[in-house]
Amino acid sequence: xxxxxxxxxxxxxxxxxxxxxxxxxxxxxxxxxxxxxxxxxxxxxxxxxxxxxxxxxxxxxxxxxxxxxxxxxxxxxxxxxxxxxxxxxxxxxxxxxxxxxxxxxxxxxxxxxxxxxxxxxxxxxxxxxxxxxxxxxxxxxxxxxxxxxxxxxxxxxxxxxxxxxxxxxxxxxxxxxxxxxxxxxxxxxxxxxxxxxxxxxxxxxxxxxxxxxxxxxxxxxxxxxxxxxxxxxxxxxxxxxxxxxxxxxxxxxxxxxxxxxxxxxxxxxxxxxxxxxxxxxxxxxxxxxxxxxxxxxxxxxxxxxxxxxxxxxxxxxxxxxxxxxxxxxxxxxxxxxxxxxxxxxxxxxxxxxxxxxxxxxxxxxxxxxxxxxxxxxxxxxxxxxxxxxxxxx
Amino acid sequence: xxxxxxxxxxxxxxxxxxxxxxxxxxxxxxxxxxxxxxxxxxxxxxxxxxxxxxxxxxxxxxxxxxxxxxxxxxxxxxxxxxxxxxxxxxxxxxxxxxxxxxxxxxxxxxxxxxxxxxxxxxxxxxxxxxxxxxxxxxxxxxxxxxxxxxxxxxxxxxxxxxxxxxxxxxxxxxxxxxxxxxxxxxxxxxxxxxxxxxxxxxxxxxxxxxxxxxxxxxxxxxxxxxxxxxxxxxxxxxxxxxxxxxxxxxxxxxxxxxxxxxxxxxxxxxxxxxxxxxxxxxxxxxxxxxxxxxxxxxxxxxxxxxxxxxxxxxxxxxxxxxxxxxxxxxxxxxxxxxxxxxxxxxxxxxxxxxxxxxxxxxxxxxxxxxxxxxxxxxxxxxxxxxxxxxxxx
Lengths: 393, 393
Description:
Chain A: Keywords: Oxidoreductase, Pyruvate, Thiamine pyrophosphate. Helix content of chain A is 31%, strand content 19%.
């Protein structure tokens, strides 16, 4: 069976000897309409979004009157509900997801609507219900496994790595594992070390897995839908402090591309790469930086595995300076891998070392002052960017 | 009566601890005695001569394959092998009691189940030699078979990880109301893994149609059963009454008893959507694998006794002969033919090419991402600049 590389959606650009093109596109048209959603570039809100429209209608721009306001946890729920309504093989399993509606309300109301078999409350054993999700996925269902906190999924590491990541390969392509593993992670407000894990660090090395991180209601819904439709095992990272973020999202159906990064703010002075909660800290720092006359280009990388080197590369070619802002620890995090990838691929375009702001290599402490000191803050971002743009480092 | 949420029970004023040692061990169901004669009062299951002979053929073919391929490893022709010797009746009789729609999640000592379902000697040999015709595309160790067509899920080495998969598959079957169940095999050693306990508990709580078949063969590599678990009843009572599951202990070396018990268990599982535990007592005659020398931890006399006097294949043969369904001439002819077929399959498989380099990168995901395309290009470049021994074909 020949493996083919899908045709890129936008024109590829070449930089030097290396040809880069977007690594993946959808080939599936959305069930209700004709077009694909290419909303990776929400450069500014006045641009029309190519949301998928129902047959016969043209796409409508999101103005102040259209769309609906929603909180992030509800956007996740909306995406999940739409996919469950569209495809009867989609089901959810985890602790307290059914009758309770989920610890963070992502599955609220779904058990009432779809039955408590499709939204299944399981006994407490992460390795087992993750394994169950994998077994069900191998036999024709599309399972969404919820970890109550991402950190607990460390108990399911074997199933995620040796089975979800591996069985498609070791079976010679006979069995596929279309499972979505999701849950809240990241550093919260004084939740203690075991509830403040950044699992993207630990899982990024596992071949066969895809990883995406949502950061806004808009991309949360779009990524949830895309992850469910993917035939690969996908880990969807949500952040425990972003569930109540509010945003207006389209009424029309849309699905995002799992492998695409999001250009949040175009600029020419420096490329800032970030994801999840740190996106918002970067935006906060950017307000001050813009006031001071700087022009940062901000990219929410969204796809943690694989990296969208097309979008990232285009930016670096323009700005020649890179700062990564992450919540992972210094050692072995997403920032560490992203720096290596940037050095490997874009060395000739860099004016200086790719910089990275990360958490320290310590477990997250409980005391508020200590905890705040382990998370990169907007003030640090401002200082770092100024140092880089003034040539001080 | 006390009515806690956790249990409704009569109360007592006498403080009495429950001893872990009950009066007698759970009895073991058998139909044939050690010499293959039906015991008084036995209820022979309905097996006609063609089914019985087919079962015997498969057992002999399995035995022959095991002995020749074990030797092949000793001669350095394959790197690893693991036999089913002593468990042929358990493998084949349990498989014969299932339908082809029942999904099997094996541990690794169940080649006979796959053979019964129709995996050919060529297919077995191709996998062991990791050649380009193997279903696993050369990605797994020998004996890690998998066949989507035959509903036999690709083997993953870590112990008991397949048990939650079986529960997940059963969950899917229950949702589809299919006339089928999931069946999973594991050893006495596997019953110590966390996944075993969680899977049993989940299956019982969720009422999933899954058969848990424990091949209690007395040893987990060098660990004897008495060091694996405490108490005479461990696996049987623990998983059975302990987790709220119907269970039975059966003589795993009695093909008729295994056939009858598995048939009945399957009926219960499918009709009532409930899990059933079958603890099949047997003996691992061979070493754990070619990486083991079991004479280091058990006596040669013990092995010889079980290999000869307690051979389940011979026991079944005696029963066939007592029905005049088998003769000495038949035996000679079958053994000769089986040997020829296995050797021929081995020689063919050995001659074939190994999988091409492209198969190193396919099936990690559903399509090839950019990083793997780059890595493949780099590898091909390295190989082309090096001596022919590294050249791809």
